[in-house]
Amino acid sequence: MADYVEINPHILNYARQIVQKDTNKVLDHFSKKSKQHFDLTKEKLKELETNKAPMDVNLLKEFACLYKRPLSFFFLPNPPVENFIPKDFRTHTSAKLSHDLSTETIFEIRKAKRVQYVTKEIFQDYYTNSESLEKHTLKEDPIVLAKKYREILGITTETQSKQKSTLNFFRLLRNNIEKLGILVYKGSFNVDDGRAFCFVQELPYLIVINNKDGTELGYAPKVFSLMHEFAHILLKQDSICNDFTTTSSPVEQFCNAFASNFLVPEDDFSVKIMSHNLKTKEDIRNFCEDQKKFYNVSLDVILYRLKIKGVVTQNFIDETLKERKEKFDLSSDDPFIPLVTQAQKVINNQGQTFVQMVLEAKSSERITPEAAADYLNTKAKNLKSVESEIVKFYK
After folding, report:
1. Is residue 334 pLDDT above 50, yes or no?
2. Whole-prediction pTM
């Protein structure tokens, strides 16, 4: 015999609306994917979301699974206030409005915000450094600011150029940013929704990087996205961004200038330009290839810096990037995607810092192994492999 429970029907309606699922998508799930169909119809769903009445607990569990909420969520007295959509700085015409983020993206943001919540509730000592992080303004010189934060984050041209890959450089930057008490979360969601997000309305500050950002270009685009969002945090401003090239927003222009000058420092780059004979297109393209490898950044960043220095025009940039795209289109029929273990995925997405804090709390018995697995969004049986992986992850 089925067990029945009563919940606030507005909670059920809220859970569906917040993940952008219309009634047809819900009914489609129950008819095709659910083991039990529960004879759910459009009228019955509307009734459940409108009137308080006993509900089959198994049906509620199915809703919890579909909306990716813990069962306890549906027993709240009223729908919560969840302000997880940051200020929208997107400029690509393909981008939707901020309130129309895809279900995939909303789920990923919720995962990131949960990491932020767990850190806030359990690891308060972690983000004390970020409390004293200075707030900056658009009136400041982004070149001077970039130089200042290269020193704060311990990035020199020597350490930067010695990184074996853009992935290693990303990890170095992420690790050093997290030492300031700023969480960096990585997740996979629709690129049209955004390349990166950041949240500064509560501590610890949070940056969210899209795993799908510039996939064919490796980690170079993610390196830029990371420093662009870091600039937003310095301005103490939430953001959702997807275009770092053709924006007219003063805020985005400032963050672009900060990121590009942080990654390719003004003094060093000026010397390099002066020491090279950049007269022909071939000279410039060879220079770009050398410098992107030296700084571990994308071709786009080098071209942007050369444009600012008056070495190239926008037409040259468009032509160069078009040629790159054509090469990728010809060679990307069957791209190699390396296998990633569950342990590596946990650390890749949630970050070395957060994973280490959770594992240390488990070791000191501040939290149970079950809680640790829950916080890391994995199964308890995977914790040993996560512990082994974290030791070698940043070697």
Report:
1. no
2. 0.83
